[in-house]
Amino acid sequence: MLVHSSARRLLVSRGGGSGSGSFFPFAAAANACSRRALAPVSASAMSYRGGGGGRRGGGGGPNSQRGRGRGGGGAGRGGGGGGRGGGGRGEQRWWDPQWRAERLRQMAGEVEKVDENEWWNKIRQLREGSQQELVVKRNFGRDGQNILADMAQRQGLYLSFDAFFRISNLHLEADKFHFHYPVFNLGEDSNVYNKGKTIVFSKVPLPDYRADLDERHGSTQQEIRMSNETERRVESLLAKAKSNSNDSASTSTLTTRQSRPSTSSSVTESTKDIDKERLSSELRDIQNSRKMMPSARSMQSFRDKLPAFKMREEFLKAVAANQVLVISGETGCGKTTQLPQFILEEEIDNLRGADCSIICTQPRRISAISVAARVASERGEELGDTVGYQIRLESKRSAQTRLLFCTTGVLLRRLGFTFPVTELFLEDILEKTRYKINSERDNFQGNSRRKRLASVKSDPISDAFEDVDIYKEYGNYSVATRQSLEAWSATELNLSLVEGTIEYICRHEGEGAILVFLTGWDEISKLLDKIKGNNLLGNSNRFLVIPLHGSMPTVNQREIFDRPPANMRKIVLATNIAESSITIDDVVYVIDCGKAKETSYDALNKLACLLPSWISKASAHQRRGRAGRVQPGACYRLYPKVIYDAMPQFQLPEILRTPLQELCLTIKSLQLGAVASFLAKALQPPDPLSVNNAIELLKTVGALDDVEELTSLGRHLCTLPLDPNIGKMLLIGSVFQCLDPALTIAAALAYRNPFVLPIDRKEEADAVKRSFAGDSCSDHIALVKAFEAWKEARRSGRERSFCWENFLSPMTLQMMDDMRNQFFDLLSDIGFVSKTRGLKAYNYYGKDLEMVCAVLCAGLYPNVVQCKRRGKRTAFYTKDVGKVDIHPSSVNAGIHQFPLPYLVYSEKVKTASIYVRDSTNISDYALLLFGGSLSESKTGEGIEMLGGYLHFSAPRRIIELIQRLRGELDKLLQRKIEEPALDIFSEGKGVVAAAVELLHSQNVHH
């Protein structure tokens, strides 16, 4: 229920056990917060005046500079133009009323009228025929487009039009067809559907951008220039390589691996049975002896009080009778710690311990560690004996381990091998992951009593607020309470409010730890700073403030479970990592901001983003349950009840909101059949378009063939716990002797960027990052240089000061170092490298930036950006979404002109704009030799890639030379993939040398 509050008091409902929640109207703490006034925008505020200018245009006025930005400023008294419209220098002068009126008259004369009967019949023919879409390149104006939109929606079709207002996928119910839905004014910068000159009717949803309909930027023609000297040298190296290859074929044969002589097992089946009986007996004796220990008896008395213990016998009977069992219980009832123990104890007591193997998945690393430690403690044994854990880069287990707690990723990697598992617990499957339990009969035998969960609205908060009258909801409250609610912002988390709530608890409430739920590390670090500067909370003798974040080392994460000294209160600042599985026993108070960072995926536009969003009611319930484990507790929810009522019941499963290429590759590696048909059997199947996007990407990367079967490259990628693009980059790096930088880049992209960008010193941090990048125009090279400098500083004992001076995270760098070692071991396991030879043996070109950039291109393709010069600046375009921007954190963000025509990037993310993260400037030769497959252009005058989006023209002999060299590189790479032990530098030294020669002919990185 919503709790009333006066301006000076906080009232929260109390409860014992798992705690009880309340909605906190922020009266006391919010008094310190600034209130925001929402005022309508007047017409005058949108006009252009001297000195004003548009968002990207320079200001005008008497002293303004001329022509800054896209719009440019008008000179003298002409005033500033806005956006691309331009100022007072000529062409467009929208600020001039006379010019504007004349231009509008011209535009009105160019507009065609819509013949409604004709277009109604055309739309009906499209709907009833076999054609998928109808493309119309005619100017009907805004009114005509609205008429066509009405016709399209009445006949159940999708329509995309008008670059000024992006109204894609207009497919609404007849009674909901109103234009008061949110529409974003993107201005003339939008490239959607040829600037409004093209209208598309379609039977399927339409993306925001179509390269094939963009006449200006939908494709590019790049002329390849090659000097006569470079052409001669490449021809010579290729000819020499061919000669050496022929000589090698006639004089030598491939060496075959000597298979080890097969030996028959000296242990008979009867001996194995005797050994199992002996081991089972030993396990039972040890278990019985431990039960008699005083500490174990004390722990058993605690276990007997848990709700799960009352269901022990019923649970064991259900396990024996069913293959699949779904169990639901309140927080703290013992699901995680007791149920696996019940099975383990039962198996050992019945002399089946030798054959017992139980795996229990946990959603996060810290959960696996903490739960395993708790269960081992309850059993009176050391962690790693019969109970252990395994997470990425860390494990505590032994040959005696019968109950293993692990993360989902570890489990899926083990599924690729043959291993016996008697029981499998999927912990928190509703809270976690894309790896949902799938079909009833195809994957399990026996009974299963599961219900399909209803899907939820994608944006329930927006829907709820469309018709909510805040004043009606809270009209009965006091003026002070209403003012507090009006001061609250639904879009931004007010950390002063959180700080005030913590201070209120510390001043007015009893003892007990405080758990604060925030969305990410940025908020945690900002709140830490606020607490340090607080007169009360900044006293380190009275308050122990501990951050809890998934990126922290496990040693630091364990500190949250320790009780503080007497007269000291513990305050834990956490993300949603503390929502499930982790139990901090001494937490009495929970502060819930109501949000968490959640990944979403736009399948139509192939865009992913990670933004704070409202949690579900189930998550809110979980957070409340963290309070009051050992005494009555309280939960402070820093959002109104109207928000809670609009929350979905459950979080949208990860399988519905993330790219699926890694999952699809796992499905193929486990030989589970066609990806689409397998995923269609999930409890909540993903969008078929998302599945298709993943399959198409895997085909482009080369992991799947045209019939959706794993290629040789795909089988190797399955062994690497990496995104397929990053995994491919790692393999190519090992093949072409750039392994050291490839390992560093792969670790950073798979984990996190080691650079820290403090708010108060952002300019300094950016400058340091650019200094590492040098003139490479590459975020990836900056990563490599920073990591190498860190290793040197560590060797000389300057690690701490080096990281502080260069805005680097030592924890992240250490994790990257560990991951590099893991990746090298995995490459050794599949035969691509030899541990005995060491890393240096595979790093001949590790310092050659042209080769490193080419390897990056091979891995990150098809993530390619065109760099098009626009005067003194550069505009950026991609095939999928059109115009993009460089992310502000990139070393390339401040560069106006690039020496080379393309960028490759690691990730494309949509926030206020569409940004590309972690980019590297590359040459057309890198793209031609290491990018996607080449094909003859439709005109026959060049070659193209990326479905015709990228065109390359050159004299015929140059085209043929590039195609020949690319063919030789592909053959060499294919041989290496099929025969990992092949020494590529003895077999194809000339081919690689020819590629290096060509890459260096466009050398700009040295």
Question: Can you offer a commentary on this structure?
Answer:
The protein has 1006 residues and is an alpha/beta fold. The protein folds into 6 domains: 20-32 and 504-652, 3-Layer(aba) Sandwich (Rossmann fold), CATH 3.40.50.300; 109-209, no CATH class; 273-433, Rossmann fold (3-Layer(aba) Sandwich), CATH 3.40.50; 656-698; 711-852; 863-1000, no CATH class. The protein has a 6-stranded parallel sheet with strand order 1-17-14-11-13-12, with helices on both faces. A 5-stranded mixed sheet has the order 8-7-9-6-10.
Gist of the model:
This protein is 39% helix and 13% strand. With 1006 residues, it is α/β, with parallel strands linked by helices.
The low-confidence parts are: 1-90, 162-192, 249-267, 429-472
Shape category: globular
Q: What class do helices, strands and sheet pairing give?
A: alpha/beta
Oligomer: single chain
Q: CATH topology of the largest domain, what is it called? A: Rossmann fold
Strand content: 5-15%
Radius of gyration: 32 Å
Largest sheet: 6 strands, parallel
Secondary structure: number of strands: 25
Task: Specify the helix fraction band.
Answer: 25-40%
**Average pLDDT level:** 77
Per CATH, the architecture of the largest domain is: 3-Layer(aba) Sandwich
The CATH superfamily of the largest domain turns out to be: P-loop containing nucleotide triphosphate hydrolases
Span between N and C termini?
66 Å
Classified by CATH, the class of the largest domain is Alpha Beta
Please tally the helical runs, counting DSSP H or I stretches of 4 or more residues.
36
- Domains (count): 6
* Strands side by side in the biggest sheet: 1-17-14-11-13-12
